[in-house]
Amino acid sequence: MGTLYKIWAIAQIYGRWMIKSKLFYLYLTVFLPLTLVIPIRVLAYGKLYPYLTTGTIVFTITMNALTTANQDIATDKVFKRAALIITRPITSTTYFLGLLLSNAMQIIPATIMVISILNFITVFRVQNWILFLISMAMGWYTSVLLGFIIGVTVGTRNYQLTILIGNISSFILSFLAPVYYPMEALPVPLRYLALLLFTTHVANLINLSYELESSLGCFPSLLYLVILMSILTIFILPKVKLKDFY
Amino acid sequence: MREIRIVDLWKSYGNQIVALKGVTLNINEGEFVIIAGPNGAGKTTMLRILSGEISYDRGSVEVYGYEPGNLNCKKLLGVMPQEAQLHEYLSVYEYLYYLSILKDIPKSDAKREIKRIMETFQLEEYRNKKIAELSGGYKKRVLLAQALVGNPQILLLDEPTVGLDPTMRVKMWNLLLKYFKTQRVTILLSTHYLDEVRENANRVVVLNKGKVVFEGSVGKLLAHVGYKYRFIIRGRIHELKKNLKDFMFNLEDDETIALYIRSIEELKQVMELIDLSNNTNVYEVFLDRPTVDEAYLSVIGNGHSL
Question: Which domains does chain B possess?
Answer without folding.
Answer: 3-220 (3.40.50.300), 229-289 (3.30.70.260)
